Amino acid sequence: MFKCALLPAALILLSSHAFATPAEDSRAHFQSIASGDVAQLMQSYTEQAQFNWIGGPIDGLYVGKTAISTVWNKFTQAQGTQKVSIGKLEESVNPKGATVTANVFFEGKANIKVRYVLSWREGKIINETWQIDPQLNFD
Fold first, then answer.
1. What are the chain's domains?
2. Model pTM?
3. How many CA within 13 A on the CB side of residue 67?
4. Most buried among 67, 70, 72, 95, using CB within 10 Å?
5. Comparing C-alpha atoms, which of 45, 52, 53 is closest to residue 69?
6. Which residues neighbour 52 within 8 Å (Cβ) at sequence distance 6 or greater?
7. Within 13 Å of residue 128, how many CA atoms lie on the same side as its CB?
8. Tens of pLDDT along 32-82?
């Protein structure tokens, strides 16, 4: 009887964690970048995701998890562990997917201001744009 009483509470806890919003998933994505945990970071992508990195030494278009993983390995090795600040995060959602935009500031070996755009479908990133913008405002 006691086990049956705990089941609804356990299901509520699991469901609230299992269904994060795209905004929450995006925040977790930014934290994974800052931590340098590429394995964790790569769990967010679809197999054929596209990553548009605009500006800086890694500028380019990367398609697929293998190419994206290579870029993140280069970046995290160069930057080390970072502090991340997130501003102006906005989420647009409809039944087909979501887009999250944010101003993100990474503080590591170099300080990098990024205008971020993430497109999500079924809880996975399908498209990512990393736009380096030194003039980005965080006020």
1. 21-132 (3.10.450.50)
2. 0.83
3. 15
4. 72
5. 45
6. 61, 62, 127, 128, 129, 130
7. 27
8. 999 999 999 999 999 999 999 999 999 999 999 999 999 999 999 999 999
